What does this fold into?
Amino acid sequence: MLGFSVTALFVAYQLVTSTLADAPRDSAMMIFFTVLCPTSLLAIPIIDAEVGTRGFYFLWIVVGILNAALYATIAALISRRKKSADSTDKLPS
It folds into this structure.
C-alpha cells in the first residue's frame, strides 16, 4: 500500500506543477520521487502520455501497481530475514 501511495503523491505533484505555469517542477523533488518510486523510470520511453490524459492515468496506475509490488517484496524479504534471525537466536546452546 505504501508503494502505491508514493506513486499517487508523485502523480499529484506532476498534476499540480503542470497546471501551474508559474511553478516549474523542482528537479530535487523529481529525483526524490524517482528514488522512492523507481518503477517510474519505466515511464521514460512512453512520451505520448501527456499529463491529464487517459494514457497518463493508465501508465501511472501500472507504475503504481509495480511500485506496490516492489515495496511488498522488499517488506517480505525483510520479514523473512528477521524471522530467520529470531529463530537462530532461540536455538539452545
Remarks:
- Residues 7 and 66 are 10 Å apart (CA to CA).
- The chain has a mean pLDDT of 83.
- The chain has one domain: 2-89.
- Residues 2-89 form one domain.
